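User: I've been trying to design a sequence by hand for this structure and keep getting stuck. Would you show me what you'd pick, starting by listing the structure so we're on the same page?

Assistant: Good idea, let's start from the same input. This is the structure you sent:
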């Protein structure tokens, strides 16, 4: 799984692996190769993950507050879940990765867990889109989708940043058996370094005009940070977590990108001349403007997008 960084001791670029087997062999081995042979050992791990599936569709819900309208019903192959206090929840407990589409994972936390049948739980009091995964929220995430409880049973794959973007072939199976054994599971997976991806920006403000330059529009937003230490109420502004601060703002006409504005601050100026070139005249009262904003990473490029419609 390519996920955002979950703990300080997990390098941000490394993907995670979760495994379940019956019977559990005691230790699993992970091999990889850029082709179909010549597999080399990457790591071994000994913990069986709590893996399951969605029993019913999970629809989109609120972020940045409790989603009290949805219930997450899951079947676990092994292990249990239990309710936790809000304070424990805010500390990161009861986090699950929900696969809303192949390879696309929303991180959800659940405050309340109700056992419905052996291995089946109804989870409520949800926190959605955690660690910047609101863009991965399915509408719905379909029944049958994979679910993984995010805990210490997951193993971090010790790959280098230079390995990102390479379509590796992987084989995972009992460490006591050779990689050619029929018990090994083969999987193609290209690590993308999701933990290095900047979160989408927030609080995009309605554009305002600069008196000194009539017709120019200033688009403003608030930076978010993927750094784990950024989740603090005491900081005046979140840490940058990138080598340099940089953004791109796309001016949209439906699916067409009319213009890209680049800036090193949390604002961009859309000049009257640019508006006239794009639309035939500067924008005025009653007009709307669709924009898409990205924070940039020096290593992997654009972060998660924020798309909004501005009204004048």
């Amino acid at each position: 799984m390519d996920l955002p960084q979950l703990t300080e001791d997990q390098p941000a670029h490394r993907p995670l692996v979760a495994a379940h087997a019956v019977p559990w062999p005691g230790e699993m081995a992970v091999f990889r190769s850029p082709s179909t042979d010549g597999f080399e050992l990457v790591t071994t791990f000994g913990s069986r993950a709590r893996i399951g599936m969605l029993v019913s569709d999970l629809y989109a819900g609120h972020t940045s507050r409790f989603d009290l309208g949805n219930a997450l019903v899951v079947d676990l192959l092994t292990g249990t879940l239990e309710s936790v206090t809000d304070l424990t929840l805010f500390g990161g407990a009861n986090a699950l990765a929900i696969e809303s589409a192949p390879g696309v994972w929303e991180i959800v936390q659940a405050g309340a867990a109700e056992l419905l049948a052996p291995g089946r739980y109804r989870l409520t009091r949800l926190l959605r889109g955690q660690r910047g995964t609101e863009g991965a929220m399915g509408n719905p995430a379909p029944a049958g989708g994979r679910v993984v409880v995010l805990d210490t049973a997951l193993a971090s794959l010790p790959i280098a940043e230079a390995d990102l973007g390479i379509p590796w072939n992987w084989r995972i199976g009992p460490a006591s058996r050779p990689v050619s054994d029929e018990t090994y599971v083969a999987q193609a997976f290209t690590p993308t370094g999701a933990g290095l991806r900047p979160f989408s920006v927030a609080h995009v403000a309605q554009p305002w005009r600069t008196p000194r330059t009539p017709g120019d529009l200033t688009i403003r937003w608030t930076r978010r940070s993927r750094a784990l230490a950024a989740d603090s109420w005491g900081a005046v502004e979140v840490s940058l977590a990138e080598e340099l601060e940089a953004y791109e703002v796309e001016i949209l006409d439906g699916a067409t990108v009319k213009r890209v504005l680049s800036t090193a601050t949390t604002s961009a100026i859309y000049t009257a001349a640019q508006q006239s070139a794009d639309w035939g005249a500067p924008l005025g009262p009653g007009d709307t403007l669709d924009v898409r904003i990205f924070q940039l990473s020096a290593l992997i490029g654009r972060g998660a997008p924020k798309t909004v419609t501005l009204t004048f």
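That's my pick for every position. To get oriented when you compare it with your attempt: The chain has three domains: 16-49+153-195, 51-149, 208-311. Residues 272-279 form the longest helix (8 residues).
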